[in-house]
């Protein structure tokens, strides 16, 4: 057995069942090993940002890491924006990055670069395997690092000779620590805050936004009357009819400040204290009011659900909580489509158990609002603000959950970063309906231009935000990659297209002309 074979067998034995790959020469032994040892599904992405974003989407659904396979520094660099999003989602992820053979590096061949230096700012754990006999142990350590709560990015760099030289065999997975229990004195302290009657917000993130955490939070709210609020952007939220409803802190600074105005206490539950995405002239960076005290019930890496459970018990919270009702509103009809009418249509037709990927940007608020009382679903968001993750995230989520419909709410500008994900969806036969929000612009940047106080934009500035010269042929792009597609310019066409997409068992793209 060579080093690469020992690594594949170690990863597969540690529960890493899928590798999202874009390989090159230095990774050929790893690729060859996939056929010889272990049982690992390998999914090809035609750009590294597809592989890394898909690994994120996969792990968000199964709570175990996928691996990526990337080609030296440039391959890693192409994938890093979505590694960044994964890290901000606290996604467990194992990146395997091939490198030149150890003795070849001194020659500074064209693909040579400082891979550790490139990986470090985007990884929680980085290691270069010294030789073939350490690769299996390093691979197991990478999985442990990735699985360490709340979920981390591990990057293992694999020199080509560490792949092809003789190894001793696979390594077992060392024990992985679970989330640290919350210290017992925190619970009565927070209970006192909740009983004080002062305006208090339970600010939720991470695993608090899955059904068990939300049910507990709902009980706490029922008992204490505090407000429930989620972070603006979240890895995965279980929501819809039958679940405890939670609002999201809005993205625009003024709206976020207004939402938190008057709060005296903010209790962090698997979240970080909220800050503005960007600084704006004359606006604060911290979003909670100056007199608001911030308390931590559980940090993201802590036992968030255990802490909620202990708090519910301490407060003697009722067992029954009000949950979101199924909302059935009249279906909008008419000529033009707006984000609101499109969102209402998606909300009405969303199948039970769908996974909704939200890279809708300026249309996101409408979709969040119109799917609040939709059939129960999971929502996956762009956690790190690096656009170009929607289509890859949907791809990975569909690989992880073959029995569930994935609906990708995808802004057009962001789609073009990683449009190749459609080809992977076609190749793997993935059940993803992409609702492509075709507004032919970087609309959000026009708002940002005003928010930062930039002077009246001229033609050259506005040209940086228009995507209509030439217009993109979305059905053509999709069909060119093997994905069925149709166009909707009216609500009637949108219903027809949504029905076609949702009925199909493979990938489908709807060019929704706004
Ligand atoms: C990797 C990365 N590059 C650039 C940006 C800056 N950026 C933020 S939003 C945006 C345009 C988004 O346009 P689109 O996806 O069409 O959504 P819309 O604003 O039209 O709703 C850009 C370029 C970013 N956030 N991330």
Please give a quick description of this structure:
This protein is of the alpha/beta class and 514 residues long. The chain contains 20 helices and 18 strands.
Please supply descriptive tags for the structure shown above.
seven-stranded mixed beta sheet, 18 strands, binds thiamine diphosphate, alpha/beta, globular, six-stranded parallel beta sheet, 514 residues
Protein model, in words:
With 514 residues, this protein is an alpha/beta fold. The chain is 38% helix and 18% strand. The chain contains 20 helices and 18 strands. It has helices spanning 3-13, 28-36, 48-62, 72-88, 115-119, 135-147, 160-164, 186-195, 211-224, 253-260, 304-314, 339-349, 364-370, 390-400, 412-415, 421-428, 443-451, 459-463, 474-480, 491-503; strands at residues 18-21, 41-44, 66-71, 93-99, 125-128, 153-159, 200-204, 227-230, 237-239, 247-248, 265-269, 293-298, 354-359, 377-381, 406-411, 432-438, 484-488, 508-513. The strands form 3 sheets. Strands 9-14-13-15-16-18-17 form a 7-stranded mixed beta sheet, with helices on both faces. It has a 6-stranded parallel beta sheet with strand order 2-1-3-4-6-5, sandwiched between helices. Strands 10-8-7-11-12 form a 5-stranded parallel beta sheet. Helix 14 (390-400) runs parallel beside helix 16. The chain is globular and about 65 Å long. Bound molecules: thiamine diphosphate (TPP). Thiamine diphosphate binds next to helix 15 and helix 17.
Number of helices: 20
Overall number of strands: 18
**Beta-strand percentage range:** 15-25%
Bound ligands, each once: thiamine diphosphate
Radius of gyration: 24 Å
**Structural class by secondary-structure content:** alpha/beta
Mean pLDDT, all residues: 97
Low-confidence stretches: none
Largest beta-sheet details: 7 strands, mixed
N/C terminus separation? 56 Å
| Widest beta sheet: strand line-up | 9-14-13-15-16-18-17
Overall body shape: globular
Proportion of residues in helical segments:
25-40%
